[in-house]
Design a protein that fits this description.
The protein has helices at residues 21-29, 34-57, 59-72. The chain is mainly alpha-helical. It has a domain at 23-70.
Length: 82
């Protein structure tokens, strides 16, 4: 699975967006940096989506592996000390 890593030195791009006016007021009152907050949350959402896609793409292989372990056991079953 590839990690989504935005280059820290990537140039910033101005954009327009609409936001609830009450949320904007509260964010300003609480000195919340909207650009930084959006970047952090967007990166988090992208990582979550990437993980979801990876699990979806590998679902069959994971199920097959789990089924094999359930029926045949793991190679280390006889070596466990706990």
């Amino acid at each position: 699975m590839q990690a989504i890593l935005a280059r820290p030195d990537a140039p910033k791009k101005s954009t327009n967006l609409s936001i609830n006016s009450e949320l904007l007021r509260l964010a300003k009152e609480n000195h919340i940096n909207l650009s930084q907050t959006l970047e952090q949350r967007l990166a988090e959402m992208l990582r979550e989506e990437q993980s979801r896609k990876w699990l979806e793409e590998n679902h069959d292989a994971i199920e097959a592996y789990n089924s094999r372990i359930a029926t045949a056991g793991a190679f280390s079953d006889g070596l466990r000390c706990f």
